[in-house]
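User
Here is a favour to ask of a fellow structure person. I am asking you to supply a protein in sequence and structure-token form. Please set it down just below, with no commentary around it:

Assistant
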Amino acid sequence: MVRFAVDHATWCFLNISSVRNLDMRLRRQLLQLFLTLITLPVFAEEAALQPVDSVIRMVSQTDITAQQRLAEQYRAEEPVDGYKKGFLQTASVSAGWLSGLSGSQLNSNFIELSVKTAIPLGSFEHIMGVTPSFRTDFIEAAPGVDAPSELHQAGVSFVVPHKINERWSALAIVAPAVRSDFTTSDDALRIFGMALLTWQAKPDRLAVSFGALYPDRADLPILPAIGLKWTPNKKTIYDIRFPESRFSWRLAKDGCHSETWAYMSGGFGGSTWAVTRADGSHDQLSLKDIRLLFGAERKFDGGSRMFAEFGLAFSRTLEYEATQTEQTFGNAIVIQAGLTY
């Protein structure tokens, strides 16, 4: 169409030029008309092309914006790394308080310190975690309850995870420790152990675990370690296991830097210690309870963590192995908190 208009204007100019007897003023007006006809299609063509350039720029900008949004979404959901690159992983301190309801005859509080390290087994893809720890429980017992004022546990745990293939993995834990009131060494050495196989039925969504747990307690035998971990989405984890289960819900996330979670957990509490009784005899003391806890934790990149939790301890018992005596206590409130760096 533009070509037609230019050709038509050129034809008019040639005819104007051939007419010699036209008035000079009229010829000038016709020449201006010719120039207008020549330049108008060019402006029209540029005007027609302008919106196309705008659309191209708009589409390009939209693609860039979409890519930026995808990158931001990926960074927002990038997992928090629970490990550091190095030998020293974390140092932890935790403390707790247990107080019986309605004037219970047995209360306690504790403090625990630990240091976690990582040792390569041939390569950095095969790591053994080594964690020395020390814990002291301070016992507040009524006059009629035969219990020491302090119970200690000093030991080290060895944790070896192993990835068999894309679906199967294994975990082995061995944790020797001295558990006593530091007045006797008879039966003070205890060795906790666990062996676990995990099958990823649906990777990153559903995992099934099974194995065996050896708590090395006088009041508990070897236990089956079975469980199911279901992650319906990135904000919810249902970890249903025996002897301890935990449900977690993510409250906030700052990319790969930190995450905040709320959780509910339930399982067995207590342990076995070698002690000296009030009459001077040596025996094995076992404290046992079942706990239901509610808490919140903040996880940071590199394995740092802080948590606080509270709940209820019930079915509380104190047992002596040699005399086969058992004493029960009422329900108690549990409050615990800790910091890992």
Remarks:
- The chain has two domains: 2-76, 88-340.
- The radius of gyration is 39 Å.
- The chain has two helices and 15 strands.
- Confidence is low (pLDDT under 50) at residues 1-14, 16-22, 37-50.
